[in-house]
Amino acid sequence: MEKSSGSTFKKSLNLTDSTAIVVGSMIGSGVFIVGADMSRALGSPGWLLIAWFITAIMTVFAALNYGELATMMPKAGGQYIYLREAYNPLTGFLYGWTLFMVIQTGTIAAVAMAFAKFMGVLVPWVGEKNVLLSVAGLKITTVHLIAVSSIILLTWINSRGIKTGKYVQNSFTITKVGILLLLLVVGFFIANSSGWHANTEYFWDAARLDKETGAVTALSGFSIAAAIAMAMVGSLFACDAWNNITFASGEVINPKRTLPMSLFYGTMIATLLFILANVVYIKVLPLRGIPGGEGVVAQGMAFAANDRLATAAITGIFGQYAAVIMAIMIVISTFGCNNGLVLSGARVYYAMADNKLFFKQAGKLNSRGVPGYGLVFQCVWACLLCLSGSYSQLLDYVIFAVLIFYVLTNLSVFIFRYKRPDAERPFRSFGYPVMPALCILCAMFIMVILLIYKPDYTWPGLIIVAIGIPVYYIWKKFNEKGSVTV
Questions:
Q1: How far apart are the first and last CA of the chain?
Q2: 65 near 366, Cβ under 8 Å?
Q3: Backbone phi and psi for residue 33, each to the nearest 5 degrees, phi listed first
Q4: What is the pLDDT of residue 64?
Q5: What is the pLDDT of residue 3?
Q6: Is the pTM of this model over 0.85?
Q7: What pLDDT is recorded for position 5?
Q8: Cβ-based neighbour number of residue 50 at 10 Å
Q9: What is the SS3 assignment for 258?
Q10: Residue 48's closest CA among 58, 35, 33?
Q11: Average pLDDT per consecutive 10 residues, the chain (486 residues; last block may be shorter)
């Protein structure tokens, strides 16, 4: 699989590079925003932190499970390969299909739009009111222009070779982690603790907060567990993309050691930063507030303007400069995040094309040893999602689809232990079989809760995955006739 068109993947990613891809892909804009909706779902600082702790445990232990799979099959495509080998080609295709249609490209589009919107804080010309073109009710603004341009730029950068892509990734990951650490230090040691004093009054009093009125509805018993599951949609989305390094397994130096270590270190670093960021939010702002209240303290975490929780938190620290500081942080963070997403995603389409389940050209490496056509296909679809405005709706549905494949991939650890007991496993999943089983059960519980309480978010995700079934058979039929050659 590693050879195509006279070129081969270049082993260029060491432990630092691989860890930077994990951390950089995880830290985008989610941690700065999702806490507001989670606060409304739980109404309690203590339970909010519990939701983040559960997310962190699920993420780190799932990363260790993936580490075992990655050392067994250190090939380009990562999770797609694991699912194909554990189950069948259809299951692998459904993952690749959903990744291309929604998970990877939709996330790239959303992160690019966040990049552009916060760029507008620094450059007033970039704004949703500055319309460049209006066709059939579709408005193309300067925000769309910057978002699309950033995707095209990152696609070009990563087409220049894995070394170019990794240098950009390392630079932006180190920069944003450094800035985030600085903000955390200021938050812990310099910012006042007015929020903490208010939060101690209802630290463990779980409640649902009405988004429009701010009305408080107390929760108890099973309703708390259900609320945590629904709130974790935000934290799981913020922590997503840690598995992207497995897509680039074919370019990792000593993958049987580097992949599991980078997955562990990367997820530990990112989830720890996310938890500490939420501790700072709780220290600076009261969780409960008033919708449309005067000032960030009155609005609280739950009702921060436009859900920009991090901006609200540092307003209490830096005052009028908060918006600019946060904009710089998110511009750097989202650009680095998207570089990791762009870099890794094309490797899955390469593996699919090698199995004759994607456009033939995507299975070719360019002269610099990267899947150039795969990058282009990804770029075009992500840009179209940006322009259509549909990416936000798609991402509402994507977490359920992600959970489906999360469960199947973790379950494949058990399947391979049974089917291939003698296979070489340089790294073994920690706490097997208990920890992998707990990851699966937690994910399945969240899925059941979402099916019951948020069907509008779940059924569309299922439909997107299900559409891939007829597409798979149609693709195979056309491929047998030699029709799919793009």
A1: 19
A2: no
A3: -130, -45
A4: 94
A5: 47
A6: yes
A7: 45
A8: 18
A9: helix
A10: 35
A11: 60 95 90 88 95 95 94 89 95 95 90 89 86 81 93 96 94 92 87 85 93 90 93 89 91 93 96 94 91 86 83 78 84 93 94 91 91 96 86 70 92 94 89 91 92 84 91 85 58
pLDDT at residue 341 in the model: 94
Q: Which domains does the chain have, with CATH numbers?
A: 3-480 (1.20.1740.10)
In DSSP notation, 397-431 reads HHHHHHHHHHHHHHHHHHHHHHH-TTS--SS--TT
Main-chain phi, psi angles of 204, to 5 degrees? -115, 15
Residues 25, 242 contacting (CB under 8 angstroms): yes
DSSP H or E segment with residue 33? none
Collapse the DSSP code of 141 into the 3-class scheme (helix H, G, I; strand E, B; otherwise coil) and give the result: strand
Q: In whole angstroms, how far apart are CA 62 and each of 276, 410, 454?
A: 21, 7, 25
Give pLDDT, residue 392.
60
Which amino acid, residue 274?
F
Q: What was the pLDDT predicted at 1?
A: 45
What is the rounded (10 degree) CA torsion for 68, 69, 70, 72? 90
Q: For residue 481, what is the enclosing H or E element?
A: none
Which letter does DSSP use for residue 131 in this model? Answer: E
- CA distances, 415 to each of 46, 86, 168, 421 (Å): 37, 7, 38, 9
Q: CB of 43 within 8 A of CB of 209?
A: yes
User: Does residue 161 sit in helix, strand or coil?
Assistant: coil
State whether residue 134 is helix, strand or coil: strand
Tell me 292's DSSP state.
T
Alpha carbons within 13 angstroms on the beta-carbon side of residue 103 total 29
Chain centre to alpha carbon of residue 255: 23
- Is residue 401 within 8 Å of 102, Cβ to Cβ? yes
Report the C-alpha gap between 308 and 306 in whole angstroms: 5
Nearest CA to 412 out of 2, 49, 72 is that of 72
Both structure tokens of 217: 């509805």
pLDDT for 391 equals 61
What length is written for the chain?
Answer: 486
* DSSP sequence for 170-214: HHHHHHHHHHHHHHHHHHHHTS--HHHHHHGGGTT--EEE-TTT-
